[in-house]
Amino acid sequence: MIIFKDAISSSKDELLSDSYDFKEVDGVVYEADCSMIEIGAVDVDIGANASAEEADEGVDDSAQKVNNIVHSFRLAPTSFDKASYGSYLKGYMKKVLAYLKAKNAPDSEIDAFKKGAAVFSKKVLGSFKDWEFYTGESMDVDGMVVLLNYREDGVTPYVVIWKHGVEEMKV
């Protein structure tokens, strides 16, 4: 299994793994389909009858629907307005570019990142109101902001991470 870790943040938060159905888009991001799962609500039957004298102990054991990727990687919701996200994105892209140069990435990869990131950034900013934003578990402000949107059916969620902003870790 491959786990994609945030290459920019100091905490190296885990953001995605290849155990989810993901694909590379435009050579610059990875998209992974999510699903809503139910957590909690463990029903244990020990085969005994409840005593008439016993009162309900008031344990709240209700089920909760969560996004499987957001839950699995402990992503934390955050919010931006369009201007602040644009400002964040500009700074983040500079950090990714510095990261690529520091690891001696080929010029072709750096050029592909610059072109692809500009195009994808415009796409996100153009449909800004459709996106949700998540930080890694450590909530490091320098790290990657994971994007979440819904497919054309309006029901299927998917996350987007920047391909050049992650390190792959085999486990």
Automatic annotation (TrEMBL):
GO CC terms: cytoplasm
Protein name as annotated: Translationally-controlled tumor protein homolog
Residue ranges constituting the TCTP domain according to the UniProt record: 1-171
Organism: Xylaria hypoxylon
One term of GO molecular function: calcium ion binding
Family: Belongs to the TCTP family.
Pfam families assigned: TCTP (PF00838)
